[in-house]
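It is worth pausing here to work through a concrete case rather than discussing structure prediction in the abstract. The textbook approach is simple: state the sequence, then state the predicted structure, then interpret. We follow exactly that order.
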Amino acid sequence: MLVKTEFSSTKEFGLQKKYSEDPEFALQIRMLPALAFVPKDDIISSYNVLIESNYYTKNEEILEQFLDYFENTWIGKLDRKRRRKQPKFEIEMWNCWHNCFTSIISGKYPSIWRFIEALKKEESINRLKIEHEDPEFALQIRMLPALAFVSKDDIISSYNVLIESNYYTENEEILEQFLDYFENTWIGKLPQKKKYQDRAKRIKNICTDYNDLFILDYLRGIAYNFQLQI
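Step two, the predicted structure:
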């Protein structure tokens, strides 16, 4: 079962500026959703190693509220007897260890991408609303429904020309979720882009080396292969 709920962005916890300006901090934050690529039975111990690492202990005060939310939602908070409570979403819902070797490499989106999308969703919507104040952005968006006035046999090729234009490629991250919806609803989902295929292969290779890597090195390797849009 895929995680469908929204995950509060780092902005809510006052971390947006640090995430945007500090590459190491951003990488360390991405090591949290990277836990989705750890075998289910190792997730809690791996999470404990991560939050007890030098970086997390040095930044304990900054990360405290964010980690409280993360634990309540995905991992489970510790009770008085030092046992993990049931999280809002059970680990089985978002863990995709087996997808490392199946759907991830076939081009299908495993639960980690939905997990990451949940992290990005709220902020992405807000950014789209802000961009609507830009007349050029509004014009470019209106070019999508304008496809209705294109000859039926030319719609797909015209759509491809549009999304490969300079404006759309320069704003790819902002438009990604919106275009996914547009394609799924009106055009038909396009084959996975090569860069996503390459990323999937890199992650698969890291998963293959799971037993040979220290868990922090493993999570760091996974985290290098995706970005959180905040």
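Step three, interpretation. Residues 1-9, 103-112 have pLDDT under 50 and may be disordered. The two ends are 25 Å apart (CA to CA).
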